[in-house]
């Protein structure tokens, strides 16, 4: 515990200009509109390469959840720039949502690249408040690298279950806390406060599999995997889906 606090203080000292900007109320708007989208764009390139095979396997059975009409209505929470579009089946009707509208330029580019999809609309909303999406109106909800930064995981999962039709599915791929006895978890604890400040509220030590197990899914499939991210404390991940 003392070692964690000491190293946290050293890291905070190195990032002291950012902490000062945060205290003055300048950092958060700059981070969300400029810094975070830019850095996320760079990191996403690496993460997408590492996770591609896992996403291909994860989304393979998406067509199984088509609604009675034969269409697949999909809502993606925290769409970002649309890195998942390539994995969705042809004709899929996609509604995009994100708390940050600044991603829309990159999103528009990916929409043009993925003409096999039907894009419905873009909703500016947090995962905890999807009130613009009617209850039981979608067949599938997707969230990748989103639950780490929502204000309340429980509230987000309740919203997911609300908007899903009975028999619909929630697909996820998220980074999570490492084993408590591991060095990875030690460094996650050290980096936690500064990382959260730098990356728009992203939490390194959430045990998201527990939240998913506590949610009221009738069926839940979770796999723990590792994605090697150089010099990044986000190697442990979970991937899977839950059925309403």
From TrEMBL:
<feature type="domain" description="Methyltransferase type 11">
    <location>
        <begin position="75"/>
        <end position="172"/>
    </location>
</feature>
<dbReference type="InterPro" id="IPR013216">
    <property type="entry name" value="Methyltransf_11"/>
</dbReference>
<dbReference type="InterPro" id="IPR029063">
    <property type="entry name" value="SAM-dependent_MTases_sf"/>
</dbReference>
<protein>
    <submittedName>
        <fullName>MET7A protein</fullName>
    </submittedName>
</protein>
<dbReference type="InterPro" id="IPR052356">
    <property type="entry name" value="Thiol_S-MT"/>
</dbReference>
<dbReference type="Pfam" id="PF08241">
    <property type="entry name" value="Methyltransf_11"/>
</dbReference>
<dbReference type="GO" id="GO:0008757">
    <property type="term" value="F:S-adenosylmethionine-dependent methyltransferase activity"/>
</dbReference>
């Amino acid at each position: 515990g003392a070692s964690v606090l000491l190293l946290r203080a050293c890291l905070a000292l190195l990032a002291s200009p950012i902490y000062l900007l945060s205290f003055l109320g300048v950092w958060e708007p700059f981070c969300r509109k400029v810094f975070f989208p830019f850095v996320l764009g760079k990191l996403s390139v690496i993460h997408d390469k590492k996770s591609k095979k896992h996403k291909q396997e994860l989304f393979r059975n998406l067509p199984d959840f088509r609604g009675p009409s034969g269409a697949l209505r999909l809502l993606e929470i925290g769409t970002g720039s649309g890195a998942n579009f390539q994995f969705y089946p042809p004709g899929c009707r996609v509604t995009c949502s994100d708390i940050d509208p600044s991603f829309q330029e990159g999103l528009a580019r990916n929409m043009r690249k993925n003409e096999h999809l039907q894009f419905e609309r873009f909703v500016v909303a947090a995962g905890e408040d999807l009130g613009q999406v009617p209850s039981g109106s979608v067949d599938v909800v997707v969230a990748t690298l989103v639950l780490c930064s929502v204000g309340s995981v429980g509230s987000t999962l309740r919203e997911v279950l609300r908007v899903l039709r009975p028999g619909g599915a929630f697909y996820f791929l998220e980074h999570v806390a490492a084993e408590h006895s591991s060095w990875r978890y030690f460094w996650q604890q050290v980096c936690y406060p500064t990382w959260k400040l730098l990356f728009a509220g992203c939490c390194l030590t959430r045990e998201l599999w527990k939240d998913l197990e506590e949610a009221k899914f009738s069926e839940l499939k979770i796999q723990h995997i590792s994605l090697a991210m150089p010099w990044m404390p986000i190697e442990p991940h979970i991937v899977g889906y839950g059925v309403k």
